[in-house]
User: Fold this.
Amino acid sequence: MNEEGAAIIAADIIPAVDDATAALAVKEKPKQRRTHIKHDVIISKQMESPPIRSGTNRYRNMEVVMQCHTVGEALAQLKALEHSPGGGTDIKLAEKAGAITLLHPTG
Assistant:
């Protein structure tokens, strides 16, 4: 292959490689800010027992959340658990499952 032929091939290949690389580039998602629940929000129990499979850590954590009066109290009790302590995610999951309702105080 002569130099002229190699230059033609390189001229065809390099833009194609650049296009393929650009197509594979991962687009960055904008950062989402986590929402935090205020500690003075009141928890209203909607069920007697959690609507998930019993015997799991999530079930135990949801029971703890359902027994508390405020989010601050629930977070303190969840953090105090020995094996696999819970947190704000358990409160959000309990609300999503319909086990509790969060009542935001006015004022």
In short: The first helix runs from residue 3 to 24. Residues 75 and 88 are 7 Å apart (CA to CA).
